[in-house]
Structure formats: structure tokens, C-alpha cells
Amino acid sequence: MKLLVILPVVCFLIVLNAAHVESKSRFMYQMLVFGDSYADTGNIPKSDLSPESRQWYSPYGGRRHPSGRLSNGKVQSDFIAMLLGRSEGPPTYRLRSRYVDMFGMNFAFSGSGVFEVPQKVPTLSEQVDYVEILIKEGAIKDWRLKDTVALVAISGNDYVHIANMSSSNETIALVGNVTTEIAKEVKRLQDLGVPKILVNNLHPLGCTPRHSRPSNYARCDDRANMVASMHNKNLAEKLGSDHENVMLLDLNTAFSKLVQPSPDAAKNPSDDNLAKTFTNKLRPSCESYDPKGYCGQEDENDHPQYSLSDLDDDPFGNFYWDDVHPTHTGWYFVMMQMQEYIKDFLDI
Q: Is the pTM of this model over 0.70?
């Protein structure tokens, strides 16, 4: 069955590596990255092992060395960078120097949201503050801004406690506030001179292992998915005609085709192939023994408090790496579905 999906992978690799066949304009783009762990490539500094710093410890990075990414390999921002002719995303803000790299900078922090969340990291607005300062200081030149693409990846940290909300009105109000703030920061980036902006909608929150674990990873949580749908509807409306040169990346559909395919998937050969890509759609590759624990956790004797899937060496084994983050291959197939749309949007 895996032969059905190998061909698209090979084709995608050819596209990503055919730098001299594609228009050279792809190398002209500067990339600015904002958001959370779906885009962060190491802005959280390494410290003692904890839920907040686990991305710097084994088994993160898989067979690679942990790099501050919440994955066993690359994350979304890396795959977009590859479409721009690079091998990985731009350098992190944490490692900034006097000058900004010609390829741009990554301002995303794992755990971030548009509002203050339990993990004390810069919000989306504060991340945009950083780039505004760099522009005003001249570290990012006006001429360079003309060939800039930004990624805004907000992936649901503002909704972590949604299950504790007492009423649907409270949920609706939160969704409205979150999406309004995202649209506000997108407009702010445009006003700063960023001409092309990619904005994530929400993946199906209820299909993450965090939400599917109570059913032993047998089904998605409908309520969490409903919140994602509300968010996406609100965000699409607010990023309408008032936000030109903004592309909404439909992560919800791309994820769903891989982890929660519709009953009609078999009628479409392409969707059917995607639906058969991963052996485990909802079970994570790295699973904590404690429902409240985390991947990478160790006890006082440095013994792992997590297990790795028997399929860990199989790139088609698990879509999810840990409780909320896709594997390297998971991201690969998500972004493969959107690559042509992104290239058209950026005219590359």
C-alpha cells in the first residue's frame, strides 16, 4: 500500500531540490516567521529538562540531534523555506546579532498565543513588536521588505482551557477575540511593509493525541474540532477583502485528509492515497506513561518516562510525533498538499 504514496514524495523532493530549474525569484524572498511551536525552530533557550524545554532533549530530533524543534525533524516553517530554495527556516530571533540574515528571521516561540498563556513567552503582538523595532533601527532595510513573505502560525494555545469554559457564549467570545487579534497583527505587518503574508487556519484540534487519548486514539474530539471550525470561519471572514496579498493556509483540510479522511475519500484517488499514508493517524510516536506527562520526560534516575512507537523507524508509521505536533513526515505531507498554491501566491 505504501507504493501509492512514494511517488508524490519523490516528486516533492525533486521540486524542492530543482533550484536551477525553477525561477531564481524564489531565492530573492526574505522570510519572517511568527507564531508558536508549529513554526519555532529554537527560540526557547535550552535549560534543564522540562515540558517547556523538551525540544532540546532526546528523543526530539529523532535520529538527528535535537534542534529546538518540537518534532523528530523539520517543522512547517522549514518546509516553506524549502519552497524558497533554502534547506531550513531562517535564523531565530534568540540568536540575533546586529544584522539580520539575508534570508530573514524567525520570531516564533513555542507555547505562544495571541494572548498571555501559561507559558510566559512573547505573544504574537510582542513578536511583531520585535520586527517593527528592527525595521525602525534599519536592521531590516526597506528595499529588502519589498521581497518579504511572512508566516503567521497560531495553532491553538489560546484554546488550551476551552474544555473548562462554562458556556458556549464564552467560547464564541474567545474565538472572536483570538481571530480579531490575528487579523489585527496581519494588518500591522502589512502597514510595516510586508507585501506577502501566509496565515495558518487551525488544524483539527480534536484529532491531536492530547484530545484523542481518552478514546485510546480511536476517534477525534468533536467539541475541540468544532472550536477549530468556528475559529477558521471567523478568521476567513476577518482576512477577507480588507487584507490583500494574504493567503490563508488551510491546515484544517490538509491535516484532515491525513488523520480524519471523509467517507468520500475513496472516491477521489488522490484523497484515498493520502488517507492511507500513515499507519497510526491519531496515536503519537512518542507517548508519555503519564497522561499529564510529556515526551522526553525522565525520572530522578534519568530513566525515560515515555515510550517510542515500534513504528518509529517507519516514516509512514505515525502522523503525530507527540501530544500535539506532527512528525517530520507528517509535516511533509501537509505541506505537499499546499505547495503549488503557495508557489502561485508568491509567483515562483
A: yes
Q: Identify residue 75 by its one-letter amino acid code.
A: V
Calpha distance 330→256 (Å, rounded): 12
* Dihedral class, residue 245 (left if φ above 0, else alpha if ψ from -120 to 50, else beta): left
Radius of gyration, alpha carbons of the chain: 19
Q: At 236, which helix (H) or strand (E)?
A: helix 222-238
Q: How far apart are CA 53 and CA 60, in angstroms?
A: 11
Residue-wise pLDDT for 71-123, tens only, equals 999 999 999 999 999 999 999 999 887 788 999 999 999 999 999 776 789 99
For residue 278, give its domain range.
3-346
Q: How many domains does the chain have?
A: 1
Angle ∠(155,78,109) on CA atoms, nearest 5: 45
Counting DSSP H helices and E strands in the chain, the numbers are: 11, 7
How far apart CA 274 and CA 269 sit, in angstroms, is 9
In a 3-state reduction of DSSP, which class is residue 63?
A: coil
The whole-angstrom separation of Cα 290 and Cα 307 is 11
pLDDT at 50: 96
Cβ(191)–Cβ(204) under 8 Å?
no
Nearest to 36 by CA among 5, 81, 65, 71: 71
- CATH at 35: 3.40.50.1110
Cell of 149: 513573505
Cα-based distances in Å from 344 to 23, 141, 236, 275, 285: 12, 26, 19, 26, 34
Between vectors from CA 194 to CA 189 and to CA 198, what angle results, nearest 5°? 80
